[in-house]
Amino acid sequence: MRRNWYPERYPSIRAVLYFHAYKSPNDWRVDTSASSLEAYREVVASSAYRGQLP
Fold first, then answer.
1. Which long-range contacts (CB under 8 A, 24 or more apart) does 4-13 make?
2. Is the pTM here over 0.70, yes or no?
3. How far is CA 29 from CA 11, 47, 48, 53, in A?
4. Distance between CA atoms of 37 and 40, rounded to whole angstroms?
5. Measured between alpha carbons, how far is 34 from 30 in angstroms, rounded to an integer?
6. What are the counts of helices (DSSP H) followed by strands (DSSP E) for the chain?
7. Domain ranges of the chain
8. By C-alpha distance, which of 13, 51, 36, 6 is closest to 28?
9. What is the pLDDT along the chain (54 residues), one digit of tens a residue?
């Protein structure tokens, strides 16, 4: 399964927001497992999310 399909399926998404928080019962950190960290890195590496600074 190809994981980085987000830009094609959701072309209106222009940014990926990340925040590092743990508030029981939700753990929003991307590094809670090796697979979640790998998936996050793959998504944000997409050129679709590289903006240009003014």
1. 4/42, 4/43, 4/45, 4/46, 6/43, 6/46, 6/48, 7/46, 7/48, 7/49, 13/48
2. no
3. 25, 23, 23, 27
4. 5
5. 9
6. 2, 2
7. 6-47
8. 36
9. 556 677 778 888 777 777 777 887 888 888 888 988 888 888 778 777 777 767
Contact between residue 30 and residue 40 where contact means Cβ atoms under 8 Å apart? yes
8 Å CB contact between 33 and 11: no
Q: Exposed e or buried b for every residue in 10-23, given b needs 16+ CB within 10 A?
A: eeeeeeeeeeeeee
Per-residue pLDDT, 4: 63
Contact 7, 46 (CB under 8 A): yes
